[in-house]
Specification:
Helix content: over 70%
Distance between the termini: 25 Å
Number of helices: 5
Bound molecules: protoporphyrin IX containing FE
Largest sheet: none
Order of helices and strands: HHHHH
Number of domains: 1
Radius of gyration: 17 Å
Oligomer: single chain
Shape: elongated
Length: 151
Amino acid sequence: MGTLGSLVALHALSAAVWVGGMVFAHFCLRPALRDFEPAVRLPFVADVLGRFFRFVWGAIILLLISGYGILALRGFDAFGAYVHLMQATGIVMMLLFTHLWFAPRRRLERAIAARDWPTAARNLDQIRVIVTINMWLGTLTVLVGAGGRWL
Ligand code: HEM
């Protein structure tokens, strides 16, 4: 496969894990838990998301290493402007995720430890908004990253 091929494959795999996980959380997990009581639902969702978000950190690190690795090997000039767009939306996604991790996720875990369900619900809602934005941004990023060269 060679170094370039390995980097592209790692890049696509990391994108699949991150975007796929958000699609699952948004379209499958959330609606399925709608009718559960807060005292059951909130600790469960926090646990599931806490595990997923660790994979997201791994995906971010691999996306950055592989993305800039591809550019280091081929040079920016080898690609069209779509790579700048992918980089821009990708960095916005990473900043949003970093905020999510250090602000609402941290507050959510503290609120759950204190069994403060209203605060936990409020912070989970903030996480939901950010994950929804990132899911659509991620969809756009994948379309641009994978389809850009065919434009
Ligand atoms: C933030 C820095 C990023 C850089 C520097 C970067 C760079 C690149 C480069 C150079 C390519 C190869 C383009 C081509 O062969 O036409 C690529 C492809 C791709 N990128 Fe990114 N990328 C970044 C972030 C992301 C993110 C956040 C996602 C999705 C969540 C993403 C998804 C993809 C996909 C799906 C491809 C197509 C892979 C394939 O050829 O199968 N990228 N990226």
